[in-house]
Fold:
Amino acid sequence: MLSTDGKMRLTDVADTEQLLRLIQSVPSPKAEPFKMWLAKVGYERIEETEDPEIGIDRLMETYLKKGYSTAWINQRLKSIEVRKELTDEWEDRGVKKGQEYAILTDEITKAWSDKTVKEYKQLKGLKKENLRDNMTNLELVLNMLAEASTAEISKEKKPKTFVENKIVAQQGGTIAGNTRKAIEAKSGKKIVTATNAKVLKAKGENKKLE
Structure:
């Protein structure tokens, strides 16, 4: 990797999973709090597998602690459900997880917001943060409409190739895109903006994220 002196040098690196495994192997008492935390997280994950409602409750609690409003959280949880229905449909159509999911998501996002996922995140000043966690209520609603429309069209047309799935994704996103344009024409306000979670917190709108 490139070092501070500008030269390429052999460097030890590790991803998150590897780092956690290293922590588990450290015999020092100082590592015990981390090991206990890993055990707790593992136990909670097993609980959520057995009873998904527990995971939903924990997710809602996490969003509340971050300062999101109950109305926003309800929209976000619904968006997760809609997304799952869409990815289940993609799986049925033979779409591969990972890159192909990302490409189709990009097509949907661009069709309804006029921006790719990368451009959308750049607009909101995001890096690794989740884009949906930085959407306003209305952005979430339109994103859900785009994904739900795509799923419904796919169920009817039953696309057999990736190219056909891309066309369906564009069609689903366009439905929400037309809705966005109609709302903007009537309200005179842009829906897709740089507003993100940090901006909303800074505004202190009822001390909750809208």
